[in-house]
Amino acid sequence: MGKRLLLEHAHVESIDRLDVYRRHGGYAAVEKALKSMSPAEVVEEVKKSGLRGRGGAGFPTGLKWSFLDKKSGRPRYLVCNADESEPGTFKDRYLMEKLPHLLLEGIIVSSYALESHCAFIYVRGEFRWIIKILERAIEEACAAGWLGKNILGTGFDLDIIVHPGAGAYICGEETALLESLEGKRGLPRIKPPFPAVVGLYGMPTVVNNVETLAATPWIVLNGGDAYASIGIGKSTGTKLISACGNIRKPGVYEIELGLSLEEFLYSDEWCGGMEGAYGLKAVVPGGSSVPILPASLALKTASGQPRLLSYESLAEGGFESGSMLGSGGFIVYDEAQCIVRNTFNFARFYHHESCGQCSPCREGTGWLERILHKLEEGHGTLADIDLLWDVQKKIEGNTICPLGDAAAWPVASAIRHFRHEFEEHVHHPERCLFRRRQAAVPVNALAEPV
Ligand SMILES: Cc1cc2nc3c(=O)[nH]c(=O)nc-3n(C[C@H](O)[C@H](O)[C@H](O)COP(=O)(O)O)c2cc1C
Ligand code: SF4
To answer: 69 falls in which pLDDT band (50, 70, 90)?
Structure first.
């Protein structure tokens, strides 16, 4: 059984209620931080822990906190990014639903470290039931004196405000989120300046993911060094992975970083292996935005090392043969899945979600969707595959925010590793696995050589 720093009590009945959470050690980190540590000491422990942002980019949290402008004396804000809209990623939803007080505890100790007296939780609007869970938890915490004025008599004040989004994926990008929180259209800002200097309402702001903030109570209680001793190399601690696709046991798992991808996929403790009779075809290890890995490169790196679930190992080989840990959305494809169809699906999503500010993304994502649709429908040519490659290259790196890259990388990696499938769609469209499945071809005939 792997270490559980976040989900240890997730299965305890009514752990979302304050009294039960308290009986299992809840809010001890708030007590310790506020009564016996200075804000700078909390920042120092988080730095020592090596905790990296769990929202996707993996930026060191303590370092990000140290950029926050505290000298100017302007109000500072902490914003919790709970927008979670990336296809394949559903771990923050689970954490908030099961352990709302753990998130609140993380926000309190982090706000204390940042010397901020107002924090926001920007929640994906579709999570209606989670908004209620969070609001009830905040009410309980306020009534018990864990939030509000003069917490535990220490003189530290904090309010937490829950703000629902309105269903736009782009509002998960931190600066679009801030615009949306200010009541404007969610358009990403040009950076610099970064939110640590000019953030919410123009004030110094830290934006952190739900899982990142939920990791901080354990660090405060056990120390940064103890956290850093878990995991592997610069991938310290544990990570929530939301696993889905053709596996026997989809769900949200907490793994110690450095676990081998093969063990995660096949062990009964985790995904339980492939569902049905087909073998592994590919894995998207970090949500829809990261490059897809064919089976051979998912289990081993190009240099023959076992592929590990860590920032470094997943990235080994660069975009030629690697991928990214991203947000931890682990999508598994068996041999009966159609890569062209899947790539088309992702492209349709990114085209729909592009905010339209930059032309390479606004126009390019539309081109990607249309060309992939043509290929998928069996009307494509070999020149279309080259055009697809060309279009994604022109988007990558040429946009205001990373949504453009996120749209380009799945297409690039699908062509790089599965070009033969794209070509087959040109030469033999009738062999498309997706259409054959739709036509109710006997399932065991799907993956036979054609
Ligand atoms: C299009 C797009 C969507 C994003 N969606 C989310 C999201 O839903 N949740 C999240 O935490 N980060 C999301 N991010 C990353 C955030 O911009 C930001 O890096 C993150 O919230 C920082 O928190 P962390 O350092 O704790 O990871 C998204 C980024 C992009 C470009
Ligand atoms: S890359 Fe796309 S989503 Fe991001 S700012 Fe540009 S148009 Fe908007």
So the answer is: confident
Using CA atoms, how far residue 78 sits from 12, 97, 320, 402, 446, in Å, is 29, 21, 37, 22, 51
CATH classification of the domain holding 42? 3.40.50.11540
Mean of the pLDDT values across residues 55-61? 96
Pocket residue to mutate for ligand 2, from 170, 352, 365, 392, most atoms within 8 A of Cβ:
170
pLDDT tens for each residue of 147-189? 999 999 999 999 999 999 999 999 999 999 999 999 999 999 9
Structure-token pair, residue 207: 């934006």
| Cα(252) to centroid(ligand 2), Å | 30
On whether residue 75 sits in a domain, the answer given is: yes
pLDDT of residue 60: 98
- For residue 285, what are the contacts with CB-CB under 8 A and spacing of at least 6? 261, 293, 298, 309, 314, 323, 324, 325, 326, 330
Closest CA to 404 of 390, 415, 393, 419: 393
CB 172 within 8 A of CB 402: no
Q: Which listed ligand is nearest to 85 at the C-alpha? A: 1
How would you classify the pairing of strands 77-82 and 205-209?
A: parallel
The number of folded domains in the chain is 3
Same domain, 210 and 100: yes
309 plus 382 within the same structural domain: no
Shared domain check, 410 and 330: no
Show the domain range for 164: 18-229
**Does the beta carbon of 174 lie inside 6 Å of ligand 1?**
yes
- Residue 36 class from Cβ within 10 Å (0-12 exposed, 13-18 middle, 19+ buried)? exposed
Residues sharing a CB contact under 8 Å with residue 204, sequence separation 6 or more, in sequence order: 68, 69, 70, 72, 74, 76, 77, 195, 196, 197, 198
CA of 286 to the centre of ligand 1 (A): 13
Same domain, 343 and 329: no
* Domain assignment present for 3: no
**Token pair 């840990």 in the structure block, residue:** 325
Atom of ligand 2 nearest to the CA of 395: 1
